[in-house]
Amino acid sequence: MLYFGYGSNLCARDWREWCDRHGHDGSGLRFQRRAWLPGHELAFNYDSAARGGGALDVVERFGQAAPGALFEVDTAAKAALDAKEGAPHVYEEKAVTVLDEHGGAHEAITYVVTETHRSDHVEPAPGYAELVAEGSEEYGVNTRMLKAAWRGKPPSWEIPSVFVYGSLRTGEYNHGWLQREGGIELKGIGTTPGVLYDCGSWPAMVTSEGTERVTGELWRCTSPNATLETLDELEGFEGWQQEGSLFLRGLCMARMSCGGEVLAWTYRYAGGSCAGELLPAGDWASR
Question: Cα(199)–Cα(190) distance, rounded to whole angstroms?
Answer without folding.
Answer: 22
